Amino acid sequence: MSQIHKHTIPANIADRCLINPQQYEAMYQQSINAPDTFWGEQGKILDWIKPYQKVKNTSFAAGNVSIKWYEDGTLNLAANCLDRHLQENGDRTAIIWEGDDASQSKHISYKELHRDVC
After folding, report:
1. Is residue 72 a contact partner of residue 52, using CB atoms and an 8 Å limit?
2. How far is CA 33 from CA 27, 39, 70, in A?
3. How far apart are CA 95 and CA 118, in angstroms?
4. Where are the domains of the chain?
5. Cα 76 from Cα 22, distance rounded (Å)
6. Which InterPro entries is this protein grouped with (predicted)?
7. Proportion of the chain in helix, strand, coil states, percent, rounded to 5
8. E-strand stretches of 23-63
9. How far apart are CA 69 and CA 55, in angstroms?
10. What does pTM read for this prediction?
């Protein structure tokens, strides 16, 4: 039988978290007890070109498993992952690249990433 190990979150990390453990637990419970409501709210965090009307469309029938999220909506992945962060967070780290040798690493800002991919 496996054991559950809990690790204390260092204060300097906990202070920067967007939610605390109690909020996480409440969100987790809502995701289990009311998934359409929970994921409907989470979907609103993204910028949609055409907003979704249906949160999920799932089938777990034998031989016909199908899971579709927000299938009637349209969004731009690059706009959500990169563009929307440029104005207020352009100088913040978007990607931390680390080579096979852990001493080789690079922090790439949103502005640098935008410059390199656009």
Report:
1. yes
2. 10, 11, 19
3. 16
4. 76-118
5. 33
6. ACAS_N, ANL_N_sf
7. 40, 25, 35
8. 48-50, 56-61
9. 6
10. 0.73
